[in-house]
Amino acid sequence: MSLDISDRSRHNARILTTAQALGGASPAIIVSLGGLVGQQLASHPSLVTLPVSIFNLGLAIGTLPAAWIMKRHGRRAGYMTGGILGVVSGLIAAAGIFEQMFVVFCLGTLIAGFYASYVQSYRFAVADGAPEDIKPRLISWVMVGGLFAAIIGPQTVIWTRDIVAWAPFAGSFVAQSVLALLALPVIWRLRPTTSTPVSSPSTRQPAFSTNQSNASAKVPAGRPLKEIAAQPKFILAVTAGVVSYSLMSFVMTAAPIAMVGCGHTVGEAALGIQWHVLAMFAPSFFTGRLIQRFGVNAVTAFGLFLLAISGVVGLSGLDVAHFWIALILLGVGWNFGFIGATTMVTACHRPEERNRVQALNDFLVFGSVAISSFSSGKLLSVAGWEIINLMMFPAVGLVFALMIWQHLRAPRAG
Questions:
Q1: Looking at the keywords, is Transferase present (predicted)?
Q2: Which residue has the higher pLDDT, 52 or 186?
Q3: CA 342 to CA 60: how far, in whole Å?
Q4: Which tens digit of pLDDT belongs to each residue from 295-305?
Q5: How much of the chain, in percent, has pLDDT values that exceed 70?
Q6: What angle do CA 52, 54, 60 make, to 5 degrees?
Q7: Helix axes 266-281, 25-41, angle to 10 degrees
Q8: N or C: which end of the chain has fewer CB within 10 A?
Q9: What is the arithmetic mean of pLDDT over 351-367?
Q10: Which of 16, 25, 26 is nearest to 143 (CA)?
């Protein structure tokens, strides 16, 4: 018995939410432990945060080949490939710890970034072929998986970090591989949401395919990418995504180091990050409904406003409470800003254009995240925590300026 599009979309949302919970635990493990392993293995203090930065770099450069694989072979085949990369990445990172080889450990986090480039696209995949009226809620459902990942990742670290006494944290990266392995049978249950001719087996598409071409029907190639990228609504969507994610990564990377530098304990810093990650994903239970009720621009703008407020709190004091409140506001602001930006992107392309447009968006977003991650630790050591927070305001102001510009030109465009 076949399911209609809405039912299949909801089925895939449940599958992708589960996969997000498993795959999203990988970044949490790397962010929690990357710097600590770096302190053990790096030859210079300036390289301590390199594993996390390398992870973000892998995420950025992995978006383009991931999009090509999914366009050629379908979403499910692409996500199975990503899951295999996740398994391999944890084993290589663990091997780097076992052998006390910093380069090997960084190679493991790089490949974990490739895996994350697939996981990050789950939020787009859930919208493929879905009715317009439920897209924001489906995207939010998948992001809820990140809330469970925020629990699974840190708890995995707690349970496994000391399993191998002579190689601290190696067990956590083996566990990271196990989580990626568990995601494979989940991903296999994805169902297609695109209509395809059923004239013969030879023309059937891969399950959950994004390759719309077939032997019996010619599908338009879509507009040139340059034309799509020149749309004001695409420029706003990408800028909102870049600012939301980059600021979050920029401050989150620096915050634990700043807390320890201010005399707070490693445990207090770790707890602050855990509250931050929970705040990133907990609002996903209702973000989609807020977008439906108030509009995507309003919710995105409110998210960016919260990012700015987190900067104000960060500048107002150096107590544990100041850091924790700033990190919580940073997480909630990221959620509204990033889910809003993701929803904007889905309105910028036609079905046949989605792979290229989504890949371009993620390349720009996560490329900027990689740059912010690389620069955060260095800027903190040179300029201090105050400058980290001050730099948030012009970035937020840029997005507000683009929103105002788009609002002012809308009557003329309409």
A1: no
A2: 186
A3: 16
A4: 999 999 999 99
A5: 90
A6: 110
A7: 160
A8: N
A9: 82
A10: 16
